[in-house]
Amino acid sequence: MDSTEDDISARVLLRRVLHTELPRSPVTRSATIVRRSMRLKNTPGLESPGSALRHRLKKKLHESASLSPLPSPKRPRSTVPNTNPPVTVPSPVYDEDMTTRGLLRGIIQMETEASLLMSGQPALQASEPNPAEASMSSAGERTEGLSGVELSDLTLNTEPLTHVVRGLSRRKLQRAFSASAFEKQLDQLPEDVSHVSHKGDISEEKADASQDLDWSSGSKSGLNLTLKTPFVEKRIERVGLQRKVSNRRLPSVDAFDEAVQRCLEQGPSQDHSVFQDGKTLEDSSWQKFTLCLNDVTELYVQPKKDDTVGPSAEMERDAEYEREHELERASEIPDSGPLIQGGKDHELESQDDDEEDVVPSSQEDVFLSPEDDIVLAPTQAMTESLPESCDVELQDREFVEEVEIGNVVEIEDQKVVEIEDDSIEDENVVEDEDENVVEDEDENVVEDKDENVEEIEDENVEEIEDEEVEEVQDENVEEIEDEEVVEAKHRTENPDTSQYLERITRRAHRSEGGGSVLGIPAATRVTKSFGAGLNPREKDLLDFIDGNRDLQDFSDEEREPLGSPEFPQLHPAAELSTPEQRSQQHEASLAEEDVPELEEDDDAPEELNQSEEEEELMDSGSASQSPELPQEEEEEEEEDDDDDALSAELSMKTPAFVRQKRVFTSSIAQAMPTVLKEVNAGPATQVAKRAPRQKRQTGVDVLPKSYVMSMFKHFAKTRVASDIYPAINEILKKYFERLADDLEAYTTHAKRKTIEVEDFELLMRRQGFVTDSTPVNILIEKYLPLEYRKLLIPVASSGNKVIPKQRR
Amino acid sequence: MSKKAPRAALKLHMKKNTNIRIGKNADLMAQLNILVVLHRLAEESRVKAFEEKSATIKVHHVRAVAKKLLKSTRG
């Protein structure tokens, strides 16, 4: 009690001392000390007992002053008095050593020097041993400790911190060690925990406790970390890898074989491997898509390697490649390669010579590097014929075709057929062959090819082939154009999976990507129904072919009988028609199925060609396409449900890709479609599919389904039925009408003639979406994509708080 | 949210009946408005679906909500 009283008094004294000393500037120790001592002595009047204590302290301080700032009372703590001098850099601190403040400071300094986190301990310890002094000191420390700390430099504070940090670092190390050690000794964990809790409380044991803590915590953490994470991760990784690998091996063997063959054919280009992979992956349309993509890249590479054929020559090349594949399978890759190239040259020449040159040239135009393609086509055919390993039938046909037709187109068709056949090696082969023969002999070899290709695609589904034929016949000019595109695409497409995939993807795209796709190349895609998309194209082509050349008979029946003579005749027409068709098809298919088709074709050139054709069709057939668009929309909607994810993604991705390619050939292709259209106009293919679509065109305009559904799903956060779209559409329509009226009213009220942003703001306010607490800008940032946000808010960029200077 | 609504379609809608013109970025605001409304619609429908203890939003949920919503957002 006395001590307490003394303490209190001491504290008070200390405070007073501090106060009194503060104003004084630091002077030499002796002087200050003397003065302070003097003051202290002079201040005994305040409280004798306290002063007495102080005096004692001062004396002690004096004694120890020379040695170190730490006063005697702090002996227990002052384990490192010697270290004081270096620490006592700050003069003010030094001067005040004698005073309680100085003592405190010394203590602090001592503390820092002392054990890491023992900073607190010395203070505590000092206080404990010497209740009187300790109390004072502790009190002083507490009271002045803070003040001392405050007064003292930050270094003091930092020192302990650094020490603490070091300690922590050390602890971490210890933890690491301990963790490893503790891993072995799990029993210690509980003990450590207890230790931690205890030690944490006691500052004195901080050092130890910290270590223990570290150990315990470290062990725990280390255990957790070491034991769990590494093992688990590794296992997972391994597992995941294993699973993935196993999944990939699932693809059908047949496809794989085919792909292998193709790859062999394409030996030079490594892309083929990818090609194969894509083909082999028949499991999912996605895989097929990837195949297509791969193929595309491959195709591009191939042309570079083999022939510097421009991307335009996709179609032909695709066919050629396919043929090459087939050939390779039969024979050997290297042979086909050079042969192809050589053949290409020959073909080019031949093409130029023939009347067909016009057509092929047109075709070429369609394809960026027509010559190359053409050359390739024949070469492929030749190569194919050479190996003869492929379906003999096909080869024979090719030969015949080649000889008779002498057009690349033919060859391509054949090749396509062959390729398809080879790849399929099943039902389709026979069918294709037949078709090929018939087709080849018919007007448009290309068409045949397309058909074959398309048919080949159907290999997987024979039915489709039949449909194709029917569709082709049925569809009209518009379709023809589209068919051409489609067929062209088909040709290029890999017979098996690609084709199949294409259809699927196309469908998907149409259904889903229609909205987005339509927006972009409005005219390009005459949406043919999904199944019809591919098939109709073929049909269109067929019809077109028939119509063009009055060979309707051929398309179905007389194809076979038609011999070489017909071919040449057909060629020019076919060529013309084919490119047009192709373009048409492309356009039709491109819009929606660009991605899938293109991908499936695996031929960049194809895509380009298709794109070209599409573009051409777009320019020329924009009118026709517009009506088709609604059809597409319809199709899209239908198909959306089918392959929403796939198609959407594909359409999103490839369209841009494809479109770029189309740009190349657009200029050239434009000429063709016009001619083709004229020709196509003759054969009136089925318009049944298109008629309803045209009618729907105006009714579907509210907002693209994909967009609306995605937004709705996002907002709903739960699953949403897919048939909700029409209902939402209705609602939105009504809402739109009302909205327009209101806005109009607002604008008129403002005596303006244009609906402005302000009108909208007023509207939102009246609707209750915007209140005083929710400014419009917030909503803007919340809902709109960044590009739009920037438009509305002059200087809005991802949450940057910049005050817009001017509001539009 | 991060998608782009077709501005052309929106514009078309707005100008369907009248000859009034649309400001520069007013169609963006229209999109915003549509989004907000759609959002509200989805929320309400979701609630309604929950009432019927179905995890999926069905058409009748939406319809039931639509009328009330259209009335509320009159402005």
From TrEMBL, chain B:
- What Pfam families does the database record attribute to this sequence? CENP-W
Q: Which GO terms describe its biological process?
A: chromosome segregation; kinetochore assembly; mitotic cell cycle
Q: What InterPro entries does its record include?
A: CENP-W (IPR028847), CENP-W/WIP1 (IPR052484), Histone-fold (IPR009072)
Which GO cellular component terms, listed alphabetically, does the Swiss-Prot or TrEMBL entry include? kinetochore; nucleoplasm
Provide the protein name. Answer: Centromere protein W-like
UniProt keyword annotation of Nucleus present:
yes
User: Which top-rank group of organisms is this from?
Assistant: Eukaryota
| Protein keywords | Centromere, Chromosome, Kinetochore, Nucleus
Family the UniProt entry places it in: Belongs to the CENP-W/WIP1 family.
Q: Name the gene behind this protein.
A: LOC107668290
Cell compartments where the protein resides: Chromosome, Centromere, Kinetochore; Nucleus
Q: Name one GO molecular function term.
A: DNA binding
**In the UniProt record, does the keyword Nucleus occur?**
yes
